[in-house]
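#struct-pred
JK: can someone run the complex with D-glutamic acid? inputs below
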Amino acid sequence: MPNKTKLYKNPIGIFDSGVGGLTVANAVVRLLPKEDIIYFGDTAHLPYGDKSPDTIRRYSERITQFLIDKGCKLVVIACNSASATAYDYLVERFGQQIPIINVIDPLVEEVAKQGFREIGVIATKATIATGIYEEKLSTHPDIRVRSLATPLLVPMIEEDFFENRISHAIIKHYINRDVFRDIEAMLLCCTHYPLIRKEIEMLFHTKIKVFDNSDVVARKVQSYLTHHQLLNDEREMEHQFYVSDYTQSFEQITRLFYGEKVSLEERVL
Ligand code: DGL
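RT: done, structure tokens with the ligand placed:
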């Protein structure tokens, strides 16, 4: 149960459809090394990127309840597809009990602040179908968003195909589309895409600015905790990683997203 008197000592909950959200968890851990985190990857139900909004909401609701029951002081939806489809629902359902941060708002704020006007977005089908980046950036009349679903990228990265001939061909197939002609910035709106960020920068000949969600979200978590006196600066961290379906191969690929292999514990919700 949550320790209400010393809430700041409680863990940060982070969830994703699978282990890709470890890119966000890793950014949080690097920025806030004294925080405990509880990570939940819904490996039994991935990918979320091809699911309907109702289904993603249902899965996200169970996971958020799990993180609340574990005593988390804050929930981070690391998954773009879940942030796009389930954030409003989760805030409505759990907003009185726990603060919830998604991966979209911090990125949108950052890009708008930097004054880019022609902005490309790549993400899963589920994220693109919501039109959420267009909607959130529509409050800035000068900004034009061009978005494209890039469904081959998640399986490609999970199979460790990046920075090679095949990944170059697949990425080019997407980013050379007319829709991205003359963009000034490209937003990589998926947990997995930080791993191909360098490659995308190179394929654009570093002429455009490339953003992903991980560091900007970690900074948002830091500023939220600071402003609400919830920052834990007292002790060394404890990190727990749960998945809804354990396999050795999921554990193996944590190395790609977290920088080191982590031990996964199965928890069926
Ligand atoms: N985590 C998902 C996202 O960021 C990508 C993987 C999936 O489709 O489940 O949208």
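RT: quick notes.
The radius of gyration is 18 Å.
The chain has eleven helices and ten strands.
JK: thanks, will look after standup
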